[in-house]
Design a protein that fits this description.
Blueprint: H1 2-17, H2 19-32, H3 38-50, H4 52-62, H5 75-93, H6 102-106, H7 108-118, E1 122-133, H8 134-146, E2 151-156, H9 163-177, E3 181-187, H10 196-204, E4 208-212, E5 232-235, E6 239-243, E7 261-269, H11 273-287, H12 295-299, E8 310-317, H13 325-336, E9 340-344, E10 348-349, H14 352-363, E11 367-373, H15 379-395, E12 398-402, E13 406-407, E14 411-414, E15 418-422, E16 426-427, H16 428-433, E17 436-442, H17 444-457, E18 461-463, H18 466-470, H19 474-486
Parallel strand pairs: 2-3, 3-4, 7-13, 9-11, 10-16, 11-12
Antiparallel strand pairs: 1-7, 1-8, 2-5, 5-6, 6-7, 8-17, 9-14, 12-18, 14-15, 15-17
Helix pairs in contact: 2-3, 3-4, 5-7, 7-13, 8-9, 13-14, 14-15, 15-19
Length: 490
C-alpha cells in the first residue's frame, strides 16, 4: 500500500514538474495532427493554457480526433451497392435515366453529390408517413412490431427503462417465441441509465443485445463524443422507422419538465428500407463483431414494391467519414432554394458555412424561417443556440420559439419541394461528432404537408423580434457570449 502511494505521489510530482512540456506537446498535437477547424484549435489552446490539468483531462475526454480511423468495414456494402451507385450517377450525368419528373431533374446535382460522397442510392416507390406525435409513433411502431414475421432490428440513442420500453419488450419477447430474430442496438452513453440486469434479462429471453462504444469497466465513459445518435427500426426488411423520437416516457409528453414533446419521425415502406437495413447491419457488426451479420443475407429479402410516390436518399454521416455528408446536403439544399426555407431544430449551432449560406439566402429575398424550443434540455447548448439564432434575426430571418412544450424535430423543407428529416440536429456536434442518418425526400406532396405542419406549429410559437432580441437582459448576453466562445467544442 505504501509503495502504491509513493508511486502515485511520484507520478503526480512528475506531471506537475513537467506540466508546461506536457501542455506544449498536447498543443502541438492539436495544431498539427488533428483535423480541427481553426476556431476549435484556438479554443483548445486557450483552455490548455488557462486550465493546464483540467484542460488536459477535458481534451482526453472530448477533444481527440477520430477522423483518421475508419471504424466501419464498409467494403461489403460498397461491393453490394457499387454497381447501383455508379449506374445511377452516370445515368444522371449523361441524362440517360429518362426521368420525366421535373422535380428530380431540378435536384439532379444534389442527387449526384449524395451518390458520389455518401453512396446514398436514390430509391423509388416509397410510401412515407410523417409522424409528429410521440403517442401515435409508438402506437404505430407496436402495431408493426406485432406483425413481424422474420426480423426486427431496433436501434436507438436513448432508451429509458420505463413503461414505454417495457411495452416494446413484451412484444419483442413474444416475437422471439414465434421464431423472429430480434436485435437491439443502443448507445452506451445515451442509454446509460438502463441497468445491465435489464439487458441480461433480454438476452436470456432470446433477444440479441449490443451496446455502441461501451464504457470502460461498465461505468467509465472515455468517449463523451462520437456517439451513435441514430434511431432506426427495420421490420422484416419491409418497414422502417427513422427520426427524432427516442424511447422513453418524455417522448409521449409524460415529463413535467418538458411537457408536450413535439418531434418528427418517418415511417417508410419501400426501397429506402434497403439502405436503412444496411446501416443497421454495419452498426451492429461494429458493436457486436462476434455476432456478425451478412449484408447479402438480409438485403436480398427486400422485394421490389410499387406502392408509393416518394423518391428518397438515405444519407449517413459520422466522425469517421472524410466529408460532412449531412452538413453538405443541407448546404446544397439551401443554395438551391428559390422561395422559402423552413427549419425546425432543438439546437441551432451551425458552422460558418451554414450561417453564410442562410445569410446569402435571406439577402437574396428567400424567406428563412427557424423554429427552436423555448426552454433548454441542455443549458450550455441552448444559449449557444440563442446566440446563433440572434445572428439570423439580425440578418432578417423569421425566428420562433415553440411554446407548447419542447421542440425536438430535425427538419428542413425547401421551396415546398424537398424535405431533409432524420436524426441530425442543425449543429456542429451532429455534423462532425455524432453518427447520424437523414432521409432526403423529393416529393412535393410530402414537402407541402411538412410545411403546413410548420405553419400550424406557429400558432404555438412566439416570434423573436429584432427589438426583443436587442433588449435581452445582460445576464442572457453573458450566457450567449460564453457559450458562443466554447461552441467549437460542441
Amino acid at each position: 500500500m505504501e509503495n502504491a502511494l509513493t508511486f502515485t505521489q511520484s507520478v503526480l510530482t512528475f506531471i506537475f514538474a513537467h506540466l508546461i512540456f506536457i501542455n506544449l506537446a498536447l498543443a502541438v498535437m492539436v495544431v498539427f495532427f488533428q483535423r480541427k477547424e481553426p476556431k476549435s484549435v484556438w479554443t483548445w489552446l486557450l483552455i490548455l493554457y488557462f486550465l493546464p490539468i483540467v484542460g488536459f483531462i477535458f481534451y482526453l475526454l472530448i477533444g481527440t480526433d477520430m477522423h483518421k480511423r475508419k471504424i466501419f468495414r464498409t467494403k461489403e456494402i460498397k461491393d453490394r451497392l457499387s454497381n447501383m451507385i455508379s449506374n445511377q450517377s452516370l445515368g444522371f450525368r449523361n441524362n440517360e435515366l429518362n426521368i420525366n419528373n421535373e422535380l428530380m431533374n431540378r435536384y439532379s446535382d444534389l442527387i449526384i453529390y449524395n451518390l458520389e460522397t455518401s453512396g446514398a442510392i436514390l430509391t423509388h416507390e416509397n410510401e412515407i408517413e410523417i409522424i409528429n406525435d410521440g403517442q401515435k409513433k409508438f402506437e404505430k411502431l407496436l402495431e408493426d412490431l406485432k406483425k413481424a414475421k422474420k426480423t426486427i432490428h431496433f436501434q436507438y440513442y436513448i432508451i429509458r427503462d420505463d413503461e414505454i420500453f417495457k411495452s416494446i419488450c413484451d412484444v419483442l419477447r413474444e416475437k422471439v417465441k414465434a421464431g423472429v430474430e430480434v436485435r437491439i442496438l443502443y448507445d452506451c452513453i445515451g442509454s446509460r441509465h438502463v441497468r445491465e440486469s435489464r439487458w441480461r434479462a433480454l438476452r436470456n429471453d432470446g433477444i440479441q443485445v449490443s451496446g455502441f462504444f461501451p464504457a470502460l469497466l461498465k461505468r467509465l465513459h472515455l468517449r463523451v463524443n462520437y456517439r451513435n445518435h441514430r434511431k432506426i427500426v427495420v421490420i422484416d426488411s419491409l418497414i422502417a422507422y427513422l427520426g427524432g423520437f427516442n424511447v422513453g416516457r418524455e417522448y409521449i409528453g409524460k415529463n413535467k419538465r418538458f411537457g408536450y414533446w413535439r418531434d418528427s419521425h418517418l415511417r417508410i415502406d419501400g426501397e429506402a428500407v434497403l439502405p436503412l437495413q444496411a446501416r443497421f447491419i454495419l452498426d451492429w457488426n461494429h458493436a457486436a463483431p462476434k455476432m456478425h451479420l451478412s449484408l447479402d443475407h438480409y438485403l436480398s429479402d427486400i422485394p421490389q414494391r410499387k406502392n408509393g410516390a416518394c423518391d428518397v436518399q438515405i444519407i449517413t454521416d459520422g466522425p469517421d467519414t472524410r466529408i460532412q455528408n449531412i452538413r453538405d446536403n443541407y448546404l446544397r439544399l439551401i443554395s438551391k432554394a428559390k422561395k422559402c426555407i423552413y427549419i425546425q431544430t432543438p439546437y441551432f449551432i451551425p458552422d460558418e458555412a451554414i450561417i453564410s449560406a442562410l445569410t446569402i439566402a435571406i439577402y437574396s429575398g428567400i424567406s428563412v424561417n427557424i423554429m427552436i424550443p423555448n426552454k433548454p434540455d441542455h443549458h450550455f447548448v441552448y444559449w449557444a443556440t440563442y446566440f446563433h439564432v440572434g445572428e439570423m434575426i439580425m440578418a432578417g430571418a423569421n425566428c420562433y420559439t415553440y411554446e407548447n412544450g419542447f421542440m425536438h424535430a430535425k427538419v428542413m423543407v425547401v421551396d415546398e419541394e424537398v424535405i431533409c428529416c432524420g436524426t441530425a440536429n442543425m449543429d456542429i456536434r451532429s455534423f462532425t461528432l455524432n453518427f447520424e442518418v437523414n432521409a432526403t425526400i423529393y416529393n412535393e406532396e410530402k414537402a407541402k404537408e411538412m410545411t403546413e405542419t410548420f405553419i400550424s406549429d406557429l400558432k404555438r410559437c412566439r416570434l423573436i423580434t429584432r427589438d426583443k432580441y436587442l433588449s435581452r437582459p445582460l445576464l442572457i448576453r453573458f450566457k450567449e457570449q460564453t457559450c458562443r466562445i466554447l461552441s467549437p467544442l460542441l
